[in-house]
């Protein structure tokens, strides 16, 4: 009896066991990777279109930009416009940092990243230093102080636009078919996003945006306007900002109230509270369709627990959700909508907005002019008290 005949039964058992093991492993592998397999099937059309373009169309295919744009379109349509992917280089943050800087604001320009990685001037305001020195919307900055922006990389080059007031930076600009050399003298300002003044016996406070400095400025404003018989808090065109700072601003005018972040996973993530109001005088809050996010939290807090508060203007934007960051495998960041805000005992106003007590419809371009009928209505209400 040879070896095979002697151990035939054992060999058959081993083969059957291996067969079941292989089959089970294949099934398990397929189950664990079902999302990858499904995604590959669903997005095969991307590869098909790319092959056609590469074979018969443009040969230079910008893979990174195409994938990032496709991913963000996918996220926006699948979730909302606030859910987005940011690559590891953080170009969106770089652009935002430059555009919100004192140099960009004072000099009158805004930037973006061109398709080939150079600095694109997306806005140049007439009458501001950037315009007066020859820069124009659509100009592409090829070099900064002799260094090639493309080689240096947008993320490294763009922050160099910022600097001290009065310092000079040399640009090589592409404008259409022309290349121009411009020595640009920076203007810079210390940004203050709260303005205040007395209007007769009314204290007027305008909050343009909300950051960690805003509540400090607002406290100074209240101190300097202490002789006012009443107040106007102008939140028109205020797209929000830091939630905690917004609650601190409202705390000057509100009694006790709460702001809750209710996560979609069922967890109550944070509770922010106002305490005792500093101001016990009538207040009109000016709002419009561009009053959003943290500015709406202020509006809701003041209407619920402020002293004699009247909302004047138009229904607010209606952003009552918050975002969280998550790191992804390529080093980038996914900012995704994680839950909703609720203020006091109100239902979440997301997608609905907060209505005014007295509606006054007006083009926002009229704000601050002699045709600002919302401001005039606020003054009429307070003077009648």
For this entry, give a set of tags:
385 residues, alpha+beta, Pdz3 Domain, 6-stranded antiparallel β-sheet, 14 helices, 17 strands
Measured on Cα atoms, how large is the radius of gyration?
29 Å
From the N-terminal CA to the C-terminal CA, the straight-line distance is 114 Å
Percent helix? 25-40%
Number of strands: 17
Question: What is the fold named in CATH at topology level of the largest domain?
Answer: 2-enoyl-CoA Hydratase, Chain A, domain 1
CATH H level of the largest domain: which superfamily? 2-enoyl-CoA Hydratase, Chain A, domain 1
Top-tier CATH class of the largest domain: Alpha Beta
Helix-strand makeup class? alpha+beta
Describe the structure.
The chain is 36% helix and 25% strand. The protein is α+β, with helices and mostly antiparallel strands and 385 residues long. It has four domains: 36 residues; 44 residues, no CATH class; 95 residues, PDZ domain (Pdz3 Domain, Roll); 178 residues, 2-enoyl-CoA Hydratase, Chain A, domain 1 (Alpha-Beta Complex), CATH 3.90.226.10. Strands 2, 3, 4, 5, 6 and 7 form a six-stranded antiparallel beta sheet that branches. The chain has a six-stranded mixed beta sheet with strand order 8-9-10-13-14-17, sandwiched between helices. Strands 1, 11, 12, 15 and 16 form a five-stranded antiparallel beta sheet that branches. Helix 11 packs parallel to helix 12 and helix 12 runs parallel beside helix 13. It is globular, with a radius of gyration of 29 Å. The chain starts with a helix and ends with a helix.
